[in-house]
UniProtKB/TrEMBL annotation:
Residues 528-587 form the Purple acid phosphatase C-terminal domain. This is Purple acid phosphatase. It is found in: Secreted. Residues 288-503 form the Calcineurin-like phosphoesterase domain. It comes from Gossypium australe. Its main location: secreted.
Length: 612
């Protein structure tokens, strides 16, 4: 009976976090790698070329894998392993009683089916595949398996290949610091502090460059909360470095590059990058913000994508890269990689977004796939993080929170003030986070920064997604209880959410009611908050309810993102763009003056006195 109620409570909690169920599992999770049996065949072979990569400093290379299997089948597959060497002695026993060691205890970093490039493979047993590799601080090998993913049989192992400098500084990620005139640069390398001193060389374009030191962090396997992150999904993350570039002049282009000073006096350099510093808070100028959630990652060589786990991810990434000259800052509001405990995927994600994150601030929020794990302090007791329990996200990216484990923070960008909440920790009235949210909303000077934005991963506002409609409230359970009074009191313009993998925009809402009949242009008094679900950046899409609620103005079952353009203190353009073509499919404008922000709204008027 006790176990029955435990199961009931677990199922109830799981229902609160349903988004991770809809659309399949992490592709690497389908590989039963611990059950691999070894049947190396003398007539089977697999080889990879070129053997040495990155001879001209490249961090990404295409390679060719040729293989022969005298007994081919349709479910044969090729896995990419890094590090290259399989060492059964490092594996924990599969069977504790028999002390039986598996031959392979780490999942591949990617894989393809052997017949992908040749429909004749099952007859001929000969084929080749093309893979794109990124520099991940270790060498690579390729293994040919039969038996499918569920019962893998190792048939052949290739020669190892590697990058010329596997430890090179790579994949810079910019983020706003704790003040408007500070930019942080975070990157990954293979250099610990006992090998080299990390720093960033930077300065205004055309001026003398200066050097700023960087701190170094990493995390270990025993920091993971559970499997697969602590078992087959574990891979050494390397070293994560962050440097703080301070006292920036507003609106200037700065050049920068990461360096590691070796103890022999030489320096290992990255490529040279650039960014434009933030405008002064309240500066009346053109400012462009992109917001989305749940993008995930995908492989440009087609690896791992048989299940279409994140089918829109590359389209969104590529659209942002194409429009990068017209973007000033990006907010990715949770569910970043969907690595779900397969740590190698964090490198691949940072490589995918590097053209964006190295050029404009890439601000993140915490989602269920970053944080949630049973008995780990997350608000939801679900296994969505795959045992990561927030550690990789908190280490791989910088964000200006007071406590990295409490993923809430505020940041300013010119005319915008952003309050980023953490839906994976308690946000309810009386909580520590609730007090932060109120302080963040109350602290903004609306004369200088008229555009007030709230954001969280889960839908704490409004969504007509099918599972929310089944709950009956069209929101995350307990979502807007307590928060709605803050949005109303402080006149939040727009609230953004991810988690639900589609796009939806509400009317301006006050006390659960639409307070403006307009759909495309809003002007005058700020009398309600517009709620936007923008979780369709890449992961499998979420279905809507058949019933369209009265507050829902526009719904789209497709991949896309939102762009906000502030022309000045009085005019804002909102655009929803689809990832497949970059065209605008929904939009509205807001026009107003400062007196409209101050104006008395509904029952939220400030108290007055009759005294003269």
């Amino acid at each position: 009976m006790v176990w029955f109620w435990v199961l009931v409570l677990f199922t109830a909690n799981l229902k609160l976090g349903l988004a991770h169920i809809h659309g399949g599992e992490q592709p690497l999770a389908k590989i039963n790698i611990l059950q691999t049996t070894v049947a190396l065949h003398e007539s089977a072979s697999i080889s990879a070329e070129p053997v040495l990569l990155g001879l001209k400093g490249e961090d990404t290379e295409w390679i060719t894998v040729n293989f022969v299997n005298p007994m081919p089948s349709l479910d044969d597959w090729v896995g990419v392993f890094s590090p290259a060497k399989f060492d059964p002695l490092t594996c924990p026993p599969v069977n504790e009683r028999k002390k039986q060691l598996p031959y392979i205890c780490s999942a591949p970093i990617k894989y393809k089916y052997a017949n992908e490039s040749s429909s004749y493979y099952a007859k001929t047993g000969t084929a080749s595949l093309r893979f794109q590799l990124i520099n991940q601080r270790a060498d690579f090998s390729f293994a040919l398996f039969s038996g499918g993913l569920s019962d893998p049989i190792l048939v052949a192992i290739s020669n190892p290949i590697s990058f010329a400098n596997p430890k090179a500084p790579l994949y810079p990620r910019l983020a706003q610091g704790k003040s408007w005139n500070e930019m942080t640069v975070t990157w990954t390398s293979g250099y610990d502090i006992d090998e080299a001193v990390p720093f960033v060389e930077w300065g205004r374009k055309g001026d003398l460059q200066v050097r700023s030191p960087a701190g170094t962090l990493t995390f270990k396997q025993n920091s993971m909360c559970g499997s697969p992150a602590s078992t087959v999904g574990w891979r050494d993350p390397g070293f994560i470095h962050t440097s703080f570039l301070k006292d920036l002049w507003p609106n200037f282009v700065y050049m920068y590059r990461m360096g590691h000073l070796l103890y022999n006096g030489s320096v290992v350099w990255s490529k040279t990058y650039s960014f434009k510093s933030s405008p002064y808070p309240g500066q009346n100028s053109l400012q462009r913000v992109v917001i989305f959630g749940d993008m995930g990652k995908a492989e440009r060589d087609g690896s791992n994508e048989y299940s279409d786990y994140q089918p829109g991810s590359l389209n969104t990434t590529d659209q942002l890269i194409r429009d990068l000259d017209n973007i000033d800052i990006v907010f990715h509001i949770g569910d970043l990689t969907y690595s779900n405990g397969y740590i190698s995927q964090w490198d691949q994600f940072t490589a995918q977004v590097e053209p964006i994150a190295s050029t404009v601030p890439y601000m993140i929020a915490s989602g269920n796939h970053e944080r949630d794990w049973p008995n780990s302090g997350s608000f939801y007791d679900t296994p969505d993080s795959g045992g990561e329990c927030g550690v990789p996200a908190e280490t791989m990216f910088y964000y200006p929170a007071e406590n990295k484990a409490k993923f809430w923070y505020s940041t300013d960008y010119g005319l915008f003030h952003f309050c980023i909440a953490d839906s994976e920790h308690d946000w309810r009235e009386g909580s520590e986070q609730y007090r932060f949210i109120e302080q963040c909303l109350a602290s903004v000077d609306r004369h200088r920064q008229p555009w007030l934005i709230f954001s969280a991963h889960r839908v704490l506002g409004y969504s007509s997604n099918d599972w929310y409609s089944q709950e009956g409230a069209y929101e995350e359970p307990m979502g807007r209880d307590g928060l709605q009074k803050l949005w109303q009191k402080y006149k939040v313009d727009i609230a953004f959410y991810g988690h639900v993998h589609n796009y939806e925009r509400s009317c301006p809402i006050y006390q659960n009611q639409c307070v403006n009949k307009e759909k495309n242009h809003y002007s005058g008094t700020v009398n309600g908050t517009i709620h936007v679900v923008v979780g369709g950046a890449g992961s499998h899409l979420s279905k809507f309810s058949q019933l369209i609620p009265y507050w829902s103005i526009y719904r789209d079952y497709d991949f896309g993102f939102v762009k906000l353009t502030a022309f000045n203190q009085s005019s804002l353009l909102f655009e929803y763009k689809k990832s497949r073509d970059g065209k605008v499919y929904d939009s509205f404008t807001i026009s107003r003056d400062y007196k409209d922000v101050l104006a008395c709204v509904h029952d939220g008027c400030e108290p007055t006195t009759l005294a003269s």
